[in-house]
């Protein structure tokens, strides 16, 4: 009998493109590779996400990461519906991760953000009710630190544990401590910005150097005839971290999927782990005065 941790590493070591998913603690599975769908709404033409998600389904992606606040969730949904209707895919084969909420960062007259008086446990109970009602299959969290995860895990009357925590994760921000904590609690880490982000200075910390230009990633890539992007994705997948690279370029959507036909040696994995700079691309400093701002804690 394998522990969940062993199973994770077995699946992560050798996932094929067709069956690249790992188990979640609630009995569902999550594909190790998903398509991120956040593109700057000011510069992304309408219909882009629709076409990209349809193409990604043809390429083999079965996991999509979206949100109402990405302003294109309706396109992602339409693409999935169209590909189900044309027989390319079945609904039960698609893992869609959405993030609920209906207010787009309201501000007061002075331009300050109006915060909701967040009670994470009450919010979690509302999400549990959604799962019990069959509206969602799996419940996860995003940008939770250890304290916030423990708050939920120790909540009296907890009915559903969080199965995943979507956080920034890539070779320059490897999350060793949070990853270990999550492994102990069977929580899968879903890594956002797995390619080092869009480097859009309006919301990304661009003081951190460009990940994809890293010499080690480039040189390891040369050995396998892969790009630094593919090496960065493979690194996480191989250690059981789900990745959700965003691309709205047909070529790069295909390119990023080709990470299941090579594997990194243990030494290469260790060398990439050592690239960790512990600097976030996504700091969300505009919300650092929020009582639940997660990044004041070490992890
Ligand atoms: P990312 O996936 O690390 O990087 C995306 C950037 O890399 C885009 O500019 C993309 O441009 C480019 N790119 C894609 N493939 C490439 C390749 N093979 N070579 C070179 N450049 C490549 O960053 P992200 O979009 O910030 O993160 C991924 C997803 O995570 C988001 O889309 C979103 O779904 C999610 N996310 C969640 C949170 C959260 O707080 N929960 C925060 C941030 C992001 P092209 O489109 O032109 O290819």
UniProtKB/TrEMBL annotation:
The record marks 99 as: Lowers pKa of active site Tyr. InterPro entries: AKR, Aldo/ket_reductase_CS, NAD(P)_OxRdtase_dom_sf, NADP_OxRdtase_dom. SUPFAM superfamilies: NAD(P)-linked oxidoreductase. Gene3D superfamilies: NADP-dependent oxidoreductase domain. It comes from the Eukaryota. Residues 93-276 form the NADP-dependent oxidoreductase domain. GO terms for molecular function: oxidoreductase activity. It holds the Pfam family Aldo_ket_red. The active site is at 70 (proton donor). PANTHER family: ALDO/KETO REDUCTASE. Belongs to the aldo/keto reductase family. This is 3-oxo-5-beta-steroid 4-dehydrogenase. The lineage of its organism: Eukaryota, Metazoa, Chordata, Craniata, Vertebrata.
